């Protein structure tokens, strides 16, 4: 038995909560991973995991063993990371998750610069607006905007994005141009962005000269993916509130027109987020440093 590999396999099952997800994250067949855990249990003479057809739970013995071996694995990763950092050659696979429009409009256009600097780093980019489980999905970091309620995560600020309210010229010609946020309630068709976390429409936020207002308005349509949300506004389905970086090309071309400009809300914070328990590898460290230097200007382009 390769005990170190078996310990890594066991740790990933604990973190991922399933054999299938753990096997995928380690690039191992599920049968091989299961065998490693069984061999480790036989070696220790203790049941570490309780398996049923529906779930995997950690036994008290397994929990105690995980706590002790997690420290050992982290020390090994620290030693490997220090060695690679000393050689100055960050390398390996980096799993990053990011929202759809932020990927297409902000990160991906900037990535050629990062990969030119660090050609030995492979980035696996997960793109969606869904909320990911960093530990269970074995993600190194996520790039997200808004509040960060989970205190078990470390957040590195990446700057702020501005929100704009806009619609097509044809829509505004038909329904009129609101001069105040309150006028959105009077016969206007609103297309709201719907959170994938809770299924609720995001509130409409406005601010001017210290006055802040927030509306939970009934939309004519809800969309839970950021690029599709922009497409709905571009199609003339109604008024949308979106990030400036999403709408920049349409605003420049005149296919969308900004309204309520004097009521733009304060900046929307973005962060790179990673688990406290996740070892900060050399490749993740240089990626976070690059993000912090590169993204602020791209999140809030000139307008």
From TrEMBL:
<dbReference type="Pfam" id="PF00126">
    <property type="entry name" value="HTH_1"/>
</dbReference>
<dbReference type="InterPro" id="IPR005119">
    <property type="entry name" value="LysR_subst-bd"/>
</dbReference>
<feature type="domain" description="HTH lysR-type">
    <location>
        <begin position="1"/>
        <end position="59"/>
    </location>
</feature>
<dbReference type="InterPro" id="IPR036390">
    <property type="entry name" value="WH_DNA-bd_sf"/>
</dbReference>
<keyword id="KW-0804">Transcription</keyword>
<dbReference type="InterPro" id="IPR058163">
    <property type="entry name" value="LysR-type_TF_proteobact-type"/>
</dbReference>
<dbReference type="InterPro" id="IPR000847">
    <property type="entry name" value="LysR_HTH_N"/>
</dbReference>
<keyword id="KW-0238">DNA-binding</keyword>
<comment type="similarity">
    <text>Belongs to the LysR transcriptional regulatory family.</text>
</comment>
<dbReference type="InterPro" id="IPR036388">
    <property type="entry name" value="WH-like_DNA-bd_sf"/>
</dbReference>
<dbReference type="Pfam" id="PF03466">
    <property type="entry name" value="LysR_substrate"/>
</dbReference>
<protein>
    <submittedName>
        <fullName>LysR family transcriptional regulator</fullName>
    </submittedName>
</protein>
<keyword id="KW-0805">Transcription regulation</keyword>
